[in-house]
Amino acid sequence: MHNNKPSIGIIGATGFTGSELARLLCQHPEITIKHITSETHKGKLFSDLHPQFMGILDQELESADVIDQSDVDVLFLALPHGVSMDFIKRWEHKNCKIIDLSGDFRLSTPEIYKTWYQKDHIFTKGFESAVYGQPELFADQIKGSSLVANPGCYPTASILSLAPLFVGGLIEKDTVIIDAKSGLTGAGVKASDTTHFSNVNENFKAYGLGVHRHTVEIEEQFSILGKQEIQVQFTPHLLPVDRGILVTAYAKTTKKLDQESLGKIYHDFYEGKPFVRLRKSAPGIKDVRGSHYCDIYPFWDERTNRVIVISAIDNLLKGAASQAVHNMNLMLGYEEKTGLEQIPLRP
Ligand SMILES: NC(=O)C1=CN([C@@H]2O[C@H](COP(=O)(O)OP(=O)(O)OC[C@H]3O[C@@H](n4cnc5c(N)ncnc54)[C@H](OP(=O)(O)O)[C@@H]3O)[C@@H](O)[C@H]2O)C=CC1
Ligand SMILES: CC(=O)N[C@@H](CCC(=O)OP(=O)(O)O)C(=O)O
Known about the structure:
Helix content is 29%, strand content 19%. It is an alpha/beta fold. It folds into 2 domains: 7-150 and 320-332, Rossmann fold (3-Layer(aba) Sandwich); 153-313, Dihydrodipicolinate Reductase, domain 2. It has a 7-stranded parallel beta sheet. Strands 9-10-8-11-14-13-12 form a 7-stranded mixed beta sheet. β13 (294-301) and β14 (306-313) form a beta hairpin. The radius of gyration is 20 Å and the shape is globular. The two termini are 37 Å apart.
């Protein structure tokens, strides 16, 4: 199709976030999907792999190597970490904007990347230009950027849960504990022992204790917001559901608050941020499923003088694909809500 709308490429479209990107972008009024790629399934139709797109996106899957990047305005990279950086390095001189859904450019230095990803970074120059794509916090930088590092799913729910208190200087240093649970699609499309039905069904367990790479991503962003070096205790858990992340964040504050003052801090901070909804009670993952919303309930525990914040997102959307589209809207100068107002799917 030829028109004047910006053209889009989805690299790695056969995976979970790639197909969610396709679903959102098909319905976005301002862009055209030009290329969708797969290395394993090149030559097949996208709708052969994802039958939900039959009659909607019957486009042929191409290899990423054959598409002309200068012919595309925005490329979404829905590839594993360690793979994205290779593509971004090769496409460095092309005049297109890139939104990378992997963790390859989210951290501050290649050295920290190596420590947490156990891999040498091959495109260290990218760290100079990449902007951390949390639209509620860094919209101005995202608007002027041509390489956006889309945040991780756990970090999105975690950072938004405590951002108002860090920015207000109200968190007592190193008292933050983040207990996070994710649905299975967070692990990607490839099955493993961990994600085998019988190991997950009617089960619920912690993993990655003390070493999960999202720990440092959350710490770095809290350190930026709080203007001092922050450590967090972060533990992810695997939930036997398709999608959804629920974070319970605990912290001590630098001064005594109450429910009303806490609520006001959150209300003032998120005013004008259409996709953060402040709830009157604890949200569940079904309240946001299939949508770009992050639902948050901040609670002041009078007995322990601690703040407990519950936040819920859909890991594939606010935690990945819809956040990437939100970033695209900012980068291309569109109204930020464009194509993102899906009502959560419940039940
Ligand atoms: N799932 C989630 O909830 C979230 C995911 N992310 C991040 O987004 C990215 C994509 O995640 P997700 O969609 O879940 O991943 P999937 O594993 O579901 O899909 C990744 C796709 O990348 C392609 N791919 C894999 N290896 C290579 C390679 N060496 N070269 C080229 N293409 C390759 C595959 O497509 P093919 O074989 O067809 O080429 C595959 O379908 C990851 O970096 C992930 O960490 C971020 C936040 C949340
Ligand atoms: C449930 C599950 O396995 N979740 C993934 C994280 C999701 C994700 O995609 O994060 P990145 O983009 O940072 O890789 C994990 O814990 O590795």
